[in-house]
Amino acid sequence: xxxxKGLADKVEAAPFRVTLNHVQTWxxxxxxxxxxxxxxxxxxxxxxxxxxxxxxxxMAPRREAGITPHISLxxxxxxxxxxxxxxxxxxxxxxxxxxxxxxxxxxxxxxxxALAA
Length: 117
What we know:
Elements: H1 2-8, E1 16-25, E2 31-35, H2 41-56, E3 70-75, E4 83-92, E5 94-101, E6 106-114
Antiparallel strand pairs: 1-2, 1-4, 2-3, 5-6
């Protein structure tokens, strides 16, 4: 983790606004998720900057895996087709490294990095 923290220090990204504007159900185990369209570009760019830093430290494969920024709202076997909702947005000014504590459903903050213009 210390190596990853050192690489996170090298991530360069500016603050950005995330906007999520629709819900839909994904495949099994049927999470209902809140998603955005153009409003997630900043999150995708931040992911790319983090991936680039991890590649330089030999901690990630050269090929960047795709991401779909979203918030899982609930799990239910009832399918919901894409439906637009009142947009929800916020300004992202930092990113955080978390450790998922297995089986406990909680996360520990390992580090926090501010985004700079």
